[in-house]
Amino acid sequence: MAFVPDLDTLESSSLNEEMLYGPSCLCLQKKPRLELEGTSPGVGIQVTVTKGPLSRTFRQAAILVVAVTKLLKQPTRKDFADSDLGSFLDDIFEPVSFQCIKDSYTRAPVFRYTRSQSFDILDIDHKCFVLESPTQLVALHLQGPSAGQKVKLNIALYRPRSSQGAPGSGRVPVALGIKGYQLYMSCVMSGTKPILQLEEADIRRDIESVELTRFIFYRLDSPAEGTTRFESAAFPGWFVCTSLQPRQPVGITNTPDQVNIATYELSGR
Length: 269
Fold this sequence. Notes:
Elements: H1 7-11, E1 19-21, E2 28-30, E3 36-39, E4 46-49, H2 57-73, H3 86-89, E5 111-123, E6 128-133, E7 136-140, E8 153-160, E9 171-178, E10 183-190, E11 193-200, E12 216-222, E13 227-232, E14 239-243, E15 248-249, E16 251-253, E17 260-261, E18 264-267
Antiparallel strand pairs: 1-2, 3-4, 5-8, 5-18, 6-7, 7-15, 8-9, 9-12, 10-11, 12-13, 14-16, 14-17
């Protein structure tokens, strides 16, 4: 039957003169010489760390219990906290290193798709848009039977992530597609300036990549005149335009309505 020492007996003398029960006898015996002794400054307790066989485990545990009990009974001006153990536990346990991991998050879409609408489009010179080749859009006057050649715009509407195109700002993000085709206008850099081209794509979805901003134009409405303009989101200050001359490609300009036409009328949703 194992004998468990009474803590009051262990505390009756200082740790420098403590008497310990041996693991295999019931009589008091003098504390054996230890390999390493350290005193934590400013705490008033002694912590003994020893290296040896498993038979010394009981003695080590008893010393630690006495040390903690003494610390708890010391008069202090504040409640005992875990941090109070740090001064001598650091000598017992190896330090633990921690790795700081930064938070990650999913970025909101650049533009959130809402719906699509179809419109007839005329520039203010009453020229229609015509698809002259699979990737070439031109503007010209159409009359009579040839009026059936005009194309309608399929305008995809988006909500912007930032306040740049928020409701009430007059800047609505849109993508300009050709109804009946998977063709959308895009503004890209060619040489030293941007150009307008048609690309086959399906962007009736959230635009999460900055690269796809080439398909986005800000629709700038003028309610008083009933007209609108389309400014490139990728190249601010550049607008979709037509030439003053008929049967010329639809392009893009940074000098709207000077040597070109950048103002349009939409109808026939």
